[in-house]
Amino acid sequence: xxxxxxxxxxxxxxxxxxxxxxxxxxxxxxxxxxxxxxxxxxxxxxxxxxxxxxxxxxxxxxxxxxxxxxxxxxxxxxxxxxxxxxxxxxxxxxxxxxxxxxxxxxxxxxxxxxxxxxxxxxxxxxxxxxxxxxxxxxxxxxxxxxxxxxxxxxxxxxxxxxxxxxxxxxxxxxxxxxxxxxxxxxxxxxxxxxxxxxxxxxxxxxxxxxxxxxxxxxxxxxxxxxxxxxxxxxxxxxxxxxxxxxxxxxxxxxxxxxxx
Length: 260
Hints:
Blueprint: H1 5-25, H2 30-41, H3 45-69, H4 75-95, H5 101-120, H6 132-149, H7 153-163, H8 169-196, H9 206-232, H10 235-258
Helix pairs in contact: 1-2, 1-3, 1-8, 1-9, 2-3, 3-8, 3-9, 4-6, 4-8, 5-7, 5-10, 6-7, 7-8, 7-10
């Protein structure tokens, strides 16, 4: 089965959203790919997740490499928080069979809107008083909520990092990308291990590979523009843009949950 012109056009637009979301705001892109790809190409749920992981990994890898050249990635923070986010994601995979994901989605949507409101309110110039332990718990929850709601770890961590001044404004998206790179690699490794153990659903079709290429190329091109915009933006502009995107994601999560 080959991609049709309408599908290619839709995938290119999807790639632009993925690339800009990752480079500008530290969003992985799964928040766009997972809900939208099945309606574009009739992909199954498992293959959609694999396509999302593969695409996101290539995009955030490029972002991390380019931002690292500008010394914008706080590797100490990324390496510290990534394991907690990965643990939360793994816990979500286990808990998914025992709890109502709908409740987590509603809570996550409301949380994102609250974070957005806090971002719209100009923060104090003092550094955050939140300790490492609390931030570790927040990272674990971000991974957990991401696994059950599909919003992506960065959608929760980026506004918190920005508001609480965990890292300087210019380092929020780059550091979030680094965390996403580590957690995505861990997740992909888990899938590969399960594939070696004989999990038959873990495979990507030829069509899936074509989708990764189309979305990935569009995301890479958009990411190039996004990184330039990120560097050029003022701290206030980054904060307000992230607030608007976070509010939009929160509303989207709630709408998808209520009308599912």
